[in-house]
Amino acid sequence: MKNRNKIAIIQIVFGLICWNVFATEKVIVKSESVAAPKLAIVLNSGSASVSRIDMQKREVIDDFPIGKEPHHLMMMPDGKNLIVANAAGDNLVILDASTGNKVGTIPKIIDPYQIGYSPNNQWFVVAGNRLDRVDIYAVNNGVIAPKPDIYKLPQTPSHIAFTSDSQISFVTLQDSNEIVAIDLNAKKELWKMPVGKMPAGLWMTPGDKYLLLGVTGENFVQVIDWRNKKIIKTIKTGKGAHNFRPLGDGRHVFVTNRVESTISKIDMETLENVLTIKGLPAGPDCMDITPNQKELWVTFRFSKKVGIINLTTNELEKVIKVGNSPHGVFFTPNAPWQ
To answer: Can you tell me whether residue 6 is helix, strand or coil?
Structure first.
């Protein structure tokens, strides 16, 4: 009787172990089955157009007019539509994210060079590169309010980042070589601090520990302790360090070196440059990464091309000719950690 009870207990334990293994395997399989993006949308700032690219065939489907100087684009809070910022057109164009078709326009958004939703989607921030202003719009149920709070911030507001709690927005001032911090709730400027020459892209490291700054007028990324307004380290990358895109592993981020025509990979824990990708066309700028983390797509602003880098070999695999001065690039579907 005792032996039968022991056998029964062993069978139950074995069954639980098998179930846990099976359940774990199912989770792993589920996490790896990421939908491959089918459509890449590229903004051609100099051609005032959008190129749609079939990502499987790696060729341009078509090219259509979008507005004056489209520079940056991003997903709207609804997860269905993209906003394209037409800087010289003073408007936002809405595209269906799955097809790239134009579905609407938001007029009277002045000089939207760079744009960004706060993480809680309650604020929409516009960096007015041409007019030296930063406009902050309230967002209610996904709708951008008609009138912003306007901050005159010379010179040449460029790129935007946020704290994860949506309390603070940081903006680089490209021609005065500064960063400004704005309290979004109190609607006031918190501070400015001097940085390197021609500051551009910003990226917040995990836990909001540091701000990474691409210093386009130099050859490095600055690491900023933003709470104490101190530059704590300089990471040498390449001439024209400009814009960032995370790999998606919570540890690494890529930065384009626009003048040197290279891309560097930064370890956000050690704050070191751990890889430099060379042999690229002129002017790497904006980037997007496929959800499976296997391809890095890059716009080359000086070359009228988009490039595809294999992230297994870290080599340029393909170039696709697009319009003049390609800038923003976006995939549908996009990786959830973008």
So the answer is: helix
